[in-house]
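Try this one yourself first.
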């Protein structure tokens, strides 16, 4: 395939292989923006259909084989792989690499695990092929109209591929929602955390709905109206906007609220679970994401739910006083969102530190302001606050967000109290409150945990009043010894 770069001028500038919903729309987005695109798919009919249906939107070159695809591209080749993550990605890379030349670029825009991206980056570097792990959020519509794009690669690779990605990304005030996040796995890591936050965000919206319905007695259409109103406040966000739409929708077949005809069981197979697993490895508490992921797993365990519901049908319950208003829920939702985002950004900082990526969290907040699923007004303020206080130990310790949470803490506590009193599960609201209370506490019962560990396992402990490591011989004379 060795060929003089100047002889490839006029050929396609970018290639897209993998033309299911995402790849197809990314290719159209590139073409609509005046970029010459070569398209390829394992099943050729999909590539043919794309060119036939949308060939008039721009310069789309059909490639029926990978050889034709590679030959259709100018050099260095820029190839976006948009196939099913995992084995599909490895299969495509294995087929592509023998056809490529040194310096060519393979950009995996699927939902890869960041560890796979690090591995692929290393393997391809040994062959002189440049690799980018590109997180893309915004779903099918975003891919077509402008997604949020989180590329992870070397600077020279970004110089080649970044300008194309920036053109097709969403824009806020002419700023692209795409920037170089960091090297190798950084982009897919940040995309993973984005999806983790998305889990927490969605569960909070769902818990707010449940409390409005079961405690305040509102019907789905009314609740849709409340969300619509909230979207004109500091809660303005894509998920609040579409919650209003889904809750206001009536099922055509039954005339019932759409939300009442949908089975109440969700899955948690993907990036939410990866986020929690990785957070545990890094030792970063992401309680909102973890509870949201667990809530999905719990909902999906329908046999267990039914068995326990029946077994506890006659359980006596406490009669606890509580009060709740729609305004309390609005304030609690904002405070809880701030905490969920703060936890996610702590995780980005920890991942960046662990892997030496030097990720700029303000940049991450900026490229999430539009195009992606968690896009929200909050992210603009978040970017400014992270930039102004880069060394803050938590977003919750920055002036703007400390004030925002402090102001709403009574409402958050009323919401959790009402949920507990009325027996409505609100795991993310509850965990967020416990997280804030734990961080605010002067003393934590971790001191007793350390005592217990020393008792049964001689694990030692530190003291508050002097340096060193100590052990008490609990089964002996209990005279403390210096264990340091
Ligand atoms: P899918 O994840 O459903 O993958 C289908 C594509 O993968 C088809 O083009 C298929 O080719 C190709 N493919 C498979 Br499967 N195995 C292959 C193999 N061994 N060799 C070559 N091609 C293979 O498509 P999608 O929903 O468009 O998503 C694409 C990527 O984008 C995924 O990694 C996904 O996680 C990610 N993503 C999706 C969304 C979303 O909202 N859907 C959002 C963000 C990111 P075929 O036509 O020949 O079967």
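Now uncover the answer:
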């Amino acid at each position: 395939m060795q060929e003089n770069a100047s002889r490839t001028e006029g050929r396609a500038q970018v290639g897209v292989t993998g033309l299911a919903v995402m790849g197809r729309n990314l290719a159209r987005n590139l073409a609509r923006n005046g970029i010459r695109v070569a398209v390829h798919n394992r099943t050729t009919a999909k590539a043919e259909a794309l060119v036939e249906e949308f060939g008039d939107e721009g310069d789309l070159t059909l490639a029926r084989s990978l050889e034709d695809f590679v030959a259709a591209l100018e050099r260095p080749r820029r190839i976006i792989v948009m196939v099913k993550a995992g084995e599909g990605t490895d299969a495509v890379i294995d087929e592509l690499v023998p056809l490529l030349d040194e310096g060519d670029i393979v950009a995996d825009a699927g939902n890869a695990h960041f560890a796979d991206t690090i591995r692929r980056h290393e393997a391809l570097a040994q062959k002189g092929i440049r690799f980018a792990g590109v997180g893309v959020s915004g779903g099918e519509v975003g891919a077509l109209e402008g997604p949020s794009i989180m590329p992870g690669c070397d600077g020279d690779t970004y110089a080649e591929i970044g300008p194309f990605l920036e053109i097709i990304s969403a824009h806020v005030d002419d700023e692209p929602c795409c920037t170089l996040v960091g090297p190798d796995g950084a982009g897919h890591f940040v995309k993973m955390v984005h999806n983790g936050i998305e889990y927490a965000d969605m569960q909070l919206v769902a818990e707010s709905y449940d409390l409005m319905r079961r405690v305040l007695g509102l019907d789905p259409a009314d609740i849709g109206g409340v969300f619509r109103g909230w979207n004109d406040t500091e809660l303005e966000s894509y998920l609040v906007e579409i919650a209003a739409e889904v809750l206001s929708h009536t099922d055509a077949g039954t005339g019932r609220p759409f939300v009442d005809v949908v089975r109440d069981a969700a899955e948690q197979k993907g990036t939410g679970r990866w986020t929690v697993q990785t957070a545990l490895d890094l030792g970063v508490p992401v309680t909102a994401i973890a509870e949201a992921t667990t809530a999905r797993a719990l909902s999906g365990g329908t046999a267990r739910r039914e068995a326990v519901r029946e077994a506890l049908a006659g359980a006596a319950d406490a009669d606890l006083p509580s009060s709740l208003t729609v305004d309390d829920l609005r304030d609690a939702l904002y405070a809880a969102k701030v905490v969920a985002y703060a936890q996610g950004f702590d995780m980005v900082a920890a991942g960046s530190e662990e892997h030496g990526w030097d990720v700029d969290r303000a940049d991450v907040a900026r490229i999430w302001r539009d195009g992606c699923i968690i896009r929200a007004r909050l992210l603009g303020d978040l970017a400014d606050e992270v930039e102004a206080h880069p060394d803050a130990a938590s977003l919750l310790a920055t002036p703007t967000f400390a004030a925002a949470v402090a102001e709403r803490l009574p409402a958050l506590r009323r919401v959790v109290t009402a949920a507990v009193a009325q027996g409505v599960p609100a795991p993310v609201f509850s965990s967020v409150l416990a997280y804030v209370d734990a961080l605010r506490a002067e003393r934590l019962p971790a001191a007793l945990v350390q005592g217990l560990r020393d008792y049964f396992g001689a694990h030692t402990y530190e003291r508050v009043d002097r340096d060193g490591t100590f052990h008490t011989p609990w089964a002996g004379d209990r005279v403390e010894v210096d264990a340091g």
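Discussion: The first strand starts at residue 14 and ends at 17. The chain has three domains: 5-184, 191-440, 446-482.
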